[in-house]
Design goal:
Elements: E1 29-33, H1 49-54, H2 56-62, E2 66-69, E3 73-74, E4 86-90, H3 97-109, E5 113-118, H4 128-136, E6 148-149, E7 172-176, E8 182-187, H5 202-218, E9 222-225, H6 245-248, H7 262-274, E10 281-284, H8 291-295, E11 305-306, H9 309-312, H10 318-332, E12 340-342, H11 351-354, H12 371-386, E13 391-395, H13 416-420, H14 464-467, H15 474-487, E14 498-499, E15 506-511, E16 514-519, E17 525-528, E18 531-536, E19 541-543, E20 546-549, E21 553-559
Parallel strand pairs: 1-2, 1-13, 2-5, 5-9, 9-10, 10-11, 12-13
Antiparallel strand pairs: 3-4, 6-8, 7-8, 14-15, 15-16, 16-21, 17-20, 18-21, 19-20
Helix pairs in contact: 5-7, 12-15
Bound molecules: 1-deoxynojirimycin.
Length: 560
C-alpha cells in the first residue's frame, strides 16, 4: 500500500445537493454500510465503493436518509480498516478517491447523505508517523506523537502500566530499537497494529483538523468518530490497580476512556465543521458508563449525535426498555440533542440472534438460539425503535432479518480479537458475512468472485430478491415503516413520549395521534384498538374495539 495520496478530485460541487431541512439529522434514519460485506463491484470477493454506488438506488428505495460507511481508507486491514495507514487515500481493495467522489455525487443526486468513519484514537503501525517514530528511536520528537514509554522491571521487560487491550492481552508492545536492542513500549488500546496517538501533541490535532477538511471538501455530510471516548488519557497513565478491567469497561470512567479532556477536541472540530455549508454532522462512537455521560458529547458546541449503546445492550423486556428510553430522553433533553437508537452494528451479534437467546449473554453470542423467536422479536424491536423520537441507525442486512452466522469455521475468522483471546470482542465476523442480494448465483448476488467470508446455505431465501414484494417479509416491513416515518413527521420528532397504561411486559406510548404498542411477552395480549392500524410486525386481530397483539409483536396505530 502506498503512502502517496492519490490526486484528490476537485472539491465536490455536489456538496449542498441534498435539499431538505437543516435539522435533517434530528430524526434521520441512517444506514450503516460495512463496505467489505455490502456489494462487490469488481468480483474479487471483497465489497467495494463501486459496489456501494451501484446499490444506492436500493437504499433510496428502502427509505433511509443517510449512509454511514465504515472505513475504506488505505490500510493493512489488521482490524478491517480501523487501522488507517493513509487517511486521505482509498485502499485499492475498495477503489480510488475517484470512486469515493462518484459515490458521494451519486448519493447526493438520489437525496442520500454520506457519513464517513474517522479513526482518530489510533493509526495503523504502517502510518508514516509511526514508522518514523520507530526508525528515529527513543528520545526523538517523532515518538511524542504516540505513547512510548520505557518498561518497568530490572531491564524494562514489563509493560509501563497494567492496562489491557480491548482485544485481549496487554495494551503495550515492546519495540526493537534501530540498534537491535529491546527498547521502549508503545500503547495500543486495540491491536498492536493500532498504536494510540498522543493527543497532547499539537501536531495530532492539526493533522486531524486537516483530515476533516479533506473529506469535507470532498463533499461528505458528516463523520462517525471511532472510539470517540478514547483519545485523551489520564495524566501519567495511572495503573488501574486491583480491578478486573473487563468488568469496569462500560461501567466506569477509565483512565483511558471517557476522560473529560476529549470534549476540548470536539469543540475545536465543531468550529471546523461549522465553516462548511450543508448541515453536516458528527456522530460519536462513545461507550460511556451512562447515557448521562453520553450526553456530554452532544452538548450544543460539540457533536450532533452519539450512539446509544445502552439501548443496544437492553434485553427484549418491556420494563428494561421503558427505563432506557426514559433515561435516554431525560439525559438528552437538557443538552438539546436528539436521542439515537440502534440495535445492531458491525461489532455486536445481530439483534435477530441476540433476541433468539436467553437474556444476559451479552452482545457477543455464538449460539443460534431459537431463530423464529429471534426474528419475531427483531421485527418488533425495529418497529419500536422507529417509533421513538430521535434518529435511528440500521445496520446492513438487518432489514433482511439476517441472523448472525454462528458457525463460521475458525480458519476463516478474521476478527483480530479472536486471535488475541480473552478480549471484549472476538466473534465479530458473524455479523460481517456478505449480505445476499439474489436467491441464487455466485455469492447470492454479492459479487461474481465469491465472498470473503462463507455465506450460509439459506442465505438465498433471505435475499433482497426473495423478499422484495413478498407481503410480510422483513424487507417489506422495513420499507413500509420507513415510508410511514417519511410521511408522518411526528414519528421521529420531539423529545418525549407519553406512556399509556399497559399490561405487564407490554410497552404502550402515544405521540400525538400516533400510538405504539410493543408486546415483549410470549403470550398474546388484549389492548384497546387505538384507531387505524398503520403497521404491525405480526398479525393483529381486532373485534369490538379490542385488538389482540400477539407475542413479541409491535403495532403502530393512528387515529383516536
Ligand atoms: C470501534 C470499531 O467499531 C471497531 O470495529 C474497531 O475494532 C474499534 N473501534 C477499534 O478501532
Amino acid at each position: 500500500m502506498s503512502q502517496q495520496h492519490s490526486a484528490a478530485p476537485a472539491p465536490n460541487s455536489a456538496v449542498s445537493a441534498v435539499e431538505g431541512r437543516p435539522d435533517w439529522w434530528r430524526d434521520a434514519v441512517i444506514y450503516q454500510v460495512y463496505p467489505r460485506s455490502f456489494a462487490d463491484g469488481n468480483g474479487d470477493g471483497m465489497g467495494d465503493l463501486e459496489g456501494v454506488r451501484t446499490r444506492l438506488p436500493y437504499l433510496r428505495d428502502l427509505g433511509v436518509d443517510a449512509v454511514w460507511l465504515s472505513p475504506f481508507y488505505a490500510s493493512p486491514q489488521a482490524d478491517a480498516g480501523y487501522d488507517v495507514a493513509d487517511y486521505r487515500a482509498v485502499d485499492p481493495m475498495f477503489g480510488t478517491l475517484l470512486d469515493a467522489d462518484a459515490l458521494i455525487r451519486d448519493a447526493h443526486a438520489l437525496g442520500l447523505r454520506i457519513i464517513v468513519d474517522l479513526v482518530p484514537n489510533h493509526s495503523s503501525d504502517q502510518y508514516e508517523w509511526f514508522k518514523r517514530a520507530l526508525a528515529e528511536g527513543p528520545g526523538s520528537p517523532s515518538r511524542d506523537r504516540y505513547h512510548f514509554r520505557p518498561g518497568k522491571g530490572k531491564n524494562g521487560e514489563l509493560p509501563p502500566n497494567d492496562w489491557e487491550s480491548i482485544f485481549g492481552g496487554p495494551a503495550w508492545t515492546r519495540v526493537t530499537e534501530p540498534d537491535g536492542t529491546p527498547g521502549e513500549w508503545y500503547l495500543h488500546l486495540f491491536a498492536p497494529e493500532q498504536p494510540d496517538f498522543n493527543w497532547e501533541h499539537p501536531a495530532v490535532g492539526d493533522e486531524f483538523r486537516s483530515i476533516l477538511r479533506f473529506w469535507l471538501d470532498m463533499g461528505v455530510d458528516g463523520f462517525r468518530i471511532d472510539v470517540a471516548h478514547g483519545m485523551v488519557k489520564a495524566e501519567g497513565l495511572p495503573d488501574l490497580g486491583d480491578h478486573e478491567q473487563l468488568t469496569l469497561l462500560g461501567n466506569d470512567v477509565m483512565p483511558f476512556f471517557d476522560q473529560d479532556g476529549v470534549h476540548d477536541i470536539y469543540r475545536e472540530w465543531r468550529l471546523v465543521l461549522d465553516e462548511y455549508s450543508g448541515n453536516r454532522i458528527f456522530v460519536a462512537e462513545a461507550w460511556t458508563p451512562t447515557v448521562e455521560r453520553t450526553a456530554n458529547y452532544v452538548r450544543p458546541d460539540e457533536l450532533h449525535q452519539a450512539f446509544n449503546f445502552q439501548y443496544l445492550a437492553t434485553h427484549w423486556d418491556a420494563e428494561e426498555l421503558r427505563t432506557v428510553v426514559n433515561r435516554t430522553l431525560d439525559a438528552m433533553r437538557p443538552v438539546g440533542a436528539p436521542a439515537t437508537w440502534v440495535l445492531s452494528n458491525h461489532d455486536v451479534t445481530r439483534h435477530a440472534t441476540r433476541f433468539a437467546n436467553p437474556a444476559g449473554l451479552g452482545t457477543q453470542i455464538r449460539l443460534a438460539g431459537d431463530r423464529g423467536v429471534g426474528l419475531r422479536r427483531a421485527r418488533a424491536a425495529t418497529l419500536l425503535m422507529l417509533a421513538l423520537p430521535g434518529s435511528a441507525y440500521v445496520y446492513q442486512g438487518e432489514e433482511l432479518g439476517l441472523p448472525d452466522v454462528v458457525d463460521l469455521p475458525d480458519e476463516v475468522r478474521q476478527d483480530p480479537a479472536y486471535f488475541r483471546g480473552a478480549g471484549q470482542d472476538g466473534f465479530r465476523d458473524g455479523c460481517r458475512v456478505p449480505i445476499p442480494w439474489t436467491r441464487t448465483g455466485p455469492s447470492y448476488g454479492f459479487g461474481d468472485g465469491g465472498s470473503w467470508l462463507p455465506q450460509p446455505a439459506d442465505w438465498g431465501g433471505l435475499s433482497v430478491e426473495a423478499q422484495t414484494g413478498e407481503p410480510g417479509s422483513t424487507l417489506e416491513l422495513y420499507r413500509a415503516a420507513l415510508a410511514v416515518r417519511r410521511e408522518r413527521a411526528d414519528l421521529g420528532a420531539g423529545d418525549a413520549v407519553e406512556w399509556l397504561r399497559a399490561p405487564e411486559g407490554v410497552l404502550a406510548f402515544r405521540r400525538g395521534e400516533f400510538v405504539c404498542v410493543a408486546n415483549t411477552t410470549g403470550e398474546s395480549v388484549p389492548m384497546p384498538a387505538y384507531g387505524r392500524v398503520l403497521l404491525a410486525s405480526g398479525e393483529i386481530t381486532e373485534a369490538a374495539g379490542e385488538a389482540k397483539v400477539p407475542a413479541d409483536t409491535t403495532v403502530w396505530w393512528s387515529g383516536s
